[in-house]
Amino acid sequence: MATHNDFGKKAEDLAVEYLKKNGYKILVRNFRFKKNEIDIIAEKDHLIVVVEVKARSTDFFILPQEAVTKTKIKSIVSAANYFMEEFNKNQEVRFDIMSVLADEKRNLNIEHIENAFEAFDAN
Q: What span is annotated as the signal peptide, if there is one (predicted)?
């Protein structure tokens, strides 16, 4: 596996650990619908929380959360809509971003950005 894939997996594991410690129930990881993927789907306080994990080894060019493009948002929303229908969920959905950034000592720092973007028509 490529080093960047290892880094991404480590970032997702860190995000799951963070969410669990903060009272979230992890429903599924790496949920796929067609070519779309959701990193983490969790539940807390009767909300379905769709989480995109973005990790960077440096913020020299761009912050991790700035890498979530409109196209990526559309694909996440599309997969979330499918998840909600497929599993007959009727709760409110919130879209979060977990930003994971390595510092100069290679320690990973996590930032949980709630309500990072709004759902819109994914078509």
A: none
Which of 122, 123, 112, 114 minimizes the C-alpha distance to 16? 112
Domains of the chain from N-terminus onward: 3-113 (3.40.1350.10)
- The four Cα atoms 74, 29, 3, 98 give a dihedral, to 10 degrees, of 60
Render pLDDT for 84-104 as a digit per residue (tens, 0 to 9): 999 999 999 999 999 888 777
**Eight-state DSSP code of residue 62:** -
- Paired with 58 in beta bridges are none
How far CA 79 is from CA of 4, 6, 42, 93, 108, in Å, comes to: 24, 24, 14, 12, 28
Give the model's pLDDT for residue 39. 96
Q: What is the pTM (predicted TM-score) of this model?
A: 0.85
